[in-house]
Amino acid sequence: MRFVDEFRDPELAEVLGRQITSLCEPGRHYKIMEVCGGHTHTIYRYGVQDHLPENIELVHGPGCPVCVIPMGRVDDGIAIAERDGVILTCFGDMMRVPGGRGSFLEANARGADIRMVYSPLDALRIARDNPDREVVFYAIGFETTAPSTALTILRAAKEGIENFSVFCSHVTIIPAIKAILDSPDLRLDAFIGPGHVSTVIGCRPYEWIPRDFGMPLVCAGFEPLDLLQSVYMIMKQFSEGRAEVENQYSRVVAYDGNPVALRVLADVFALRPFFEWRGLGSIAHSALQLSPRYAQYDAELRYELPGVRVADPKACQCGEVLKGVLKPWECKVFGTACTPETPIGTCMVSSEGACAAYYNYGQYAKQRLNLEVLR
Amino acid sequence: MTRQLTEDLVGERIEAMRRRPQRFRDERITMAHGAGGKASRALVEGLVVPLLANPALELLSDAGLVTVGGARLAVSTDAFVVRPIRFPGGSIGELAVNGTVNDLAVSGARPLALSAALVLEEGLAADVLEAEITAMAAAATAADVPVVTGDTKVVERGKCDSMYVVTTGVGLVDEGVALSPGRVRPGDKVLVSGTVGDHGIAIMLARGDLDIEADVRSDTQPLWSLAAALMAAAGDGLHCMRDATRGGVATVLNEIALGAEVGIVLEESRVPVRPEVVGAGEILGIDPLYVANEGKLVAFVAPEHADAALAAARALPSGRDAAIVGEVREEPPGRVLGRTAFGGHRLIDMLVGDPLPRIC
Asked: Which of A19, A23, A352, B111 is most exposed, with minimal Cβ within 10 Å?
């Protein structure tokens, strides 16, 4: 397929892999964190690591929007959905995330009406089509998806649709990266920056990372060659003794971001004083809520919610995995008690979650197999 | 080194978990149980089969075999609950005939007769029903198999989605035909009879939730003539066939890998996929390997017969785009590995539940 195959060319990948290898300092081990879950997915889906030398280790970061939702907020969603006359809507990969009282899929089996949508505008359409029902959109995601939620709220306001509200769990990326860098048990060398988030916020918000921590960050696209090129750019910085923010994904990301989207975000949302991240704990100013001007669309104000903080299961080490301290297989329950069909932690749910990606695409198996491939 | 050893240990523990007999422990049925992946497997192997236990059922084939007076009869049944009932490339009536014909065909059975049971929703328009029965008739004629008995039931409005169809088929397995996962062995080539993912993507687009316009049509078609051609071309070298319906080609490969205790390596760049299907899959974050087909089979053929089988398939309209896409290995038993078009490797596991679109 045009404009896709070009970014998945195995020959170019080999060339890039060789160039990356030639930039490696002998004996040095490089730990590069890809912040975004989309990158994690690409790495495993296409076997990107197979083109990298052994001393470059890709560490999976906290950027899976589904994985960071704490159990208590899943329960809040179920509580809303169980009210008479409510239709709860959410993105597909949210359906299987376990809360304290099971997942949305299980809530549906008990009689709730939770529907999968592809865009918040679909949720608004459901509200328009069902004027006698209350429709709630369960909003998740980083700055990537927040603008579409914001625009949907503006549309609802413009059309005067009153049976629509948003349960907002949008989070912001920068505080999460800060939390990781403040974590004492982690040693990283560089970041692959989240391409989709950067289309909105641009590259400037990352400049403190090279400045204060001396680490390169390269904003990357989501095709396998994008990732390889980003690793190459990072290695180039190392070899030239630089640490900067660079933009590999320039075909989509503007250095200053998308000013229209940023204006809409500032209009519709306000920063929460703090927000609990699954596995990472409470992080200050790390999430969005509806600004007072749009309070009537705020499901948290419209409905009485349990709002109970549910502790993560003891055995679950999602936090360490999200911070990149543990590799997925190093978690005590990985692949045995915690599997994609019976996930204990969120990292095992979404295909962007580090554990699910690792499990599904089997990096653990690769090491044991000398693959002579069909030719 | 120690790190790798530990990782190996984790891998072995996971393998052991995968091979444990399936248990069904859910409190209620969720949509995941109907999606053809791991949850469906737990439902069937952990609840249904143990309770109805008998040797024919326990083989978990597309059709059960019954011997009557020396003749081997294959019996297969399937329920069809598709929304919308008409979609580009077909409709529920046509699907219901082809689906059962194909379950028989991949079992090596010449379809002899079908039954059809219709569950109709109160209020269903008569012309809609007539169109579906007409479609069934046309499909039965095309597959050269009569519908010899049937049943109708009507349920209250809202208790079913327009109409459901259940078809059962009986077929005759010729002497000398022996197809089963147990015959698949290292060295066998994996043949896919055409483009994958067409039906599932066509249905997703036809639901209209997506606002994607693409010309993707369901591939619903009878596969008996293709199956017969493969049997004639490869003879005893044809070891096993499966139709790649719910759960797609990836699920079939996993079932065979587990059932035959072999490894399967798939060369992803050789799998035929329509560009429109690739595109829709890209947008939705869904892998066509896991998407349902309604007119494609996967065949396991001894290497010395693979070329003849491929040529025989390609000579027929239903196998025009057939390709050899992979190979059976001894290692790793029970696993399917993909060599990606990018030149890397990945593990192709069974699906957990419905393929869920990714958020971004």
From this structure: A19
